[in-house]
Design goal:
The complex is a heterodimer of chains A (about 325) and B (about 140). Chain A has 13 helices and no strands. Chain A has helices at about 5-40, 50-60, 70-85, 105-110, 115-125, 130-160, 170-175, 180, 185-205, 215-220, 230-255, 265-295, 300-330. The relative contact order of chain A is 0.16. Chain B is of the alpha/beta class. Chain B has six helices and five strands. The chains are: A mainly alpha (about 325), B alpha/beta (about 140).
Chain lengths: ~325, ~140
């Protein structure tokens, strides 16, 4: 922790805050446009989320009379900052993570729980019955998706431990793509894990069909029901950043490939190409795990959310884990 | 730059204050693929705290009178109220009925109102009222 490191960290943090909010809102806009096209509508322009945030910043910020004031105002801030902090640990294209070596995949797993927990705290603090119901549903959803998510990450890390090294570090996972080192059974197992990761994503991001906590037609927006103005804008941005960060995690775990090594280019151009390729990968992950599912499905009941995560998705993830174990012990080749 | 944000982003909270459901169907029709109000950034929201515009349909019944005032007070400023349908303007076919508390602009006079006449009005007319509303909101923001 010397002075130079801290100075660099501060500069990079400011850059990353703008970067993550910009791309979070951009991807949110692309998502809305694509869903509109899938429903044969024209849809809002891609810059719509920026306009929404600008408008919300201009609005009055109401704090309900019976709310716990400090908690109510703090929750959106924690939600936004903790979603941005996740990006400090994720490799972006060929850029190394800014806090490389200071945290691992388990830390990221817990960091992803913080935005949801902050929203739960804000929901309880806003003293609205709708928000209370939403906060309880959010906690139940968290309990549901944590099990398959942990199984996925633990089985990938366990398979990597056969290679050796600092297996929990995300940089190590990104440098050793599992697809290259597994046999046929392991490949099928990884497909199972990828599928369950894609089903976990909408639950983690509170999107249809797992958006029971923010059900607009049912409990009037749930957790966010009392929020307005600046606080709502922060929750809105945090939602976009979370989409970006979680898609980036899937990219780092499953598709950590770069394409610049196949061309003979100088460092700047290959850096840009890797960055654009990273954005493309994040977009494809978002398309398959958020947009397509959102356009194609209706909302589930809270009981269906729990049973589908605990039984169906966990079972699929466990099959993936068992196949990865067999891949090591049986050594079935291609 | 900032004052132009309202131009493409208008969140609407829709309240049925005793309507016959005719105007509600037309409000929903404005969101369907045929009219697609979302391409202008107009979106229905679930809570008055998120709204810029409150769209009231129907005359105000005695039961709804205090709730209507509460909903208007719960909406953050700057806000606009759009009254959809003839009933909210004059009472329409229900006028002189014994259970009406009166038009909303008489119950709560300190707000900006826009009126969409018709029984029910066409979705184009409703979208047009929203465009008038955001023009007014921009005027307010400039000051």
């Amino acid at each position: 922790m010397n002075g130079e490191f801290l100075f660099k960290l501060v500069l990079e943090s400011i850059g990353l805050v703008f970067f993550s909010i910009f791309f979070g809102l951009l991807f949110k806009g692309i998502d809305r446009k694509l869903v509109a096209h899938m429903q044969s509508r024209v849809g809002p322009p891609i810059r719509q989320p920026f306009l929404d945030v600008m408008k919300l910043m201009n609005k009055e910020n109401i704090v309900p009379k019976h709310a716990v004031k400090w908690m109510y105002n703090l929750a959106p801030l924690i939600c936004l900052t903790s979603s941005i902090i996740i990006l400090f640990y994720i490799p972006i294209g060929s850029i190394h993570p800014f806090l490389e070596g200071h945290g691992d995949i388990i830390l990221i797993l817990y960091l992803f729980a913080i935005p949801s927990l902050a929203m739960v705290a804000g929901g309880f603090a806003s003293s609205s019955p709708f928000a209370t119901v939403g906060a309880q549903r959010e906690m139940v959803t968290m309990i549901s998706y944590e099990l398959p998510l942990s199984i996925i990450i633990i089985s990938m890390v366990w398979r990597l431990s056969n290679i050796g090294g600092n297996v929990f570090s995300l940089q190590f996972i990104a440098q050793h793509p599992l697809w290259n080192s597994v046999g046929l059974l392991g490949f099928i197992g990884l497909l199972f894990l990828l599928f369950s990761m894609i089903i976990v994503t909408p639950g983690e991001l509170a999107k249809v069909p797992f958006d029971v906590a923010e059900a607009e037609t049912e409990i009037a927006g749930g957790l966010t029901v009392e929020y307005s103005g600046r606080n709502l804008a922060m929750l809105y941005m945090a939602d976009g950043v979370k989409i970006f960060a979680f898609s980036a995690i899937i990219v780092a775990l499953f598709f950590p490939y770069n394409i610049s090594q196949y061309f003979n280019l100088n460092s700047l151009i290959s850096f840009i190409i890797d960055f654009l390729f990273f954005l493309l990968k994040v977009f494809l992950v978002m398309l398959s795990s958020v947009t397509l599912i959102r356009a194609g499905m209706a909302r589930l009941r809270i009981t269906q959310v729990v049973s589908s995560y605990w039984f169906t998705v966990s079972l699929i993830a466990l099959i993936g884990l068992v196949l990865l174990m067999w891949d090591v012990s049986l050594k079935v080749g291609w | 730059m900032i004052s132009k944000a309202f131009k493409r982003s208008l969140w609407v909270f829709h309240v049925n204050s005793g309507s016959c459901n005719g105007c509600d169907i037309e409000v929903i029709a404005a969101l369907t693929p045929r009219y697609d109000a979302e391409r202008f950034g107009i979106k229905l929201v679930a809570s008055p705290r998120h709204a810029d515009v409150i769209a009231f349909t129907g005359p105000v019944t005695n039961d709804m009178a205090d709730k209507v005032i509460r909903i208007i007070q719960q909406t953050p400023d700057p806000k606009v109220i759009v009254i959809v349908g003839s009933c909210g303007i004059s009472g329409g076919v229900f006028h002189e009925s014994y259970h009406l508390a009166g038009p909303i602009d008489r119950l709560y006079p300190n707000a900006k109102y826009f009126y969409v006449p018709g029984c029910p009005p066409r979705p184009e007319a409703i979208i047009h009222a929203f465009t008038k509303a955001w023009e007014w909101l921009e005027e307010v923001e400039k000051k």
